[in-house]
Amino acid sequence: KATVSVLNWTRPERQDPNRPKMPKFAIMFKADMEGVEKLTLGTDARINLKCTAGRGGEEYPNLWVSQEEELDIPNSRGTAHLIVKVGDKKHGTISMVGFNSDFTYSSEEAGGWKKVCELECRDLEPTEWMIASSDWVAYGADEKARFEVEWDSNEFYDYDDQAGCEVSITNIAGECKRSK
Question: What pLDDT digit, counting tens, does each position of 86-119 carry?
Fold first, then answer.
């Protein structure tokens, strides 16, 4: 008779458990709104980042990252939404790991912080951000009036003919903060 032995095999961890994980950064937004019921962000939104390199502190003032674009990381099996050459040999990467594809900032939330997305970063640290103005849409008090938002000095003003009131989005602020 042949005997069959069964091995219980589990895959070993690929990374050292003591090795620190890639840092994550929350991209936060807040604004004051008058005559606006909600402010939405398109699902294909592109985020403009200002980053510093982890070690040399070199600044990268104009990096665009989009959930739609996924790139293979050189010499790796992984992918990222943004790859930047940092120094002579390294590549800094940013991956959008928690993008809220139907981000809505409501009138009840106005003046308070809300997370737009979360970025997982390697060798890059975001310090400032903005989203292309063509990606924002505001809805009037009755949500029938729709406004394509074009930021002018980080403010937006219009008039809602249906509701008979001014529409404004002011005191816009963005923040990049390290997530836990």
Answer: 877 678 888 887 776 678 999 999 999 999 888 8
Q: Which amino acid is at 23?
A: P
151: Cβ–Cβ under 8 A, 6 or more apart, which residues?
133, 136, 172
For the record, the structure tokens of 83 come out as 């790859």
- Residue 139: count other Cβ atoms within 10 Å of its Cβ: 20
Pair of tokens at residue 59? 């600044």
Q: Is 173 helix (H, G, I), strand (E, B) or coil?
A: strand
Place of tokens 């963005």: 174
Whose structure tokens read 């994550």? Answer: 24
pTM for the model: 0.78
| Strand positions, DSSP E, 67-134 | 71-72, 79-80, 82-86, 90-96, 104-106, 114-122, 124-131
> Which stretch of DSSP H or E encloses residue 26?
strand 24-34
Strands (E), 46-179: 46-53, 59-66, 71-72, 79-80, 82-86, 90-96, 104-106, 114-122, 124-131, 136-140, 146-148, 156-160, 165-178
What's the rounded Cα separation, in Å, for the pair 166 and 123?
45
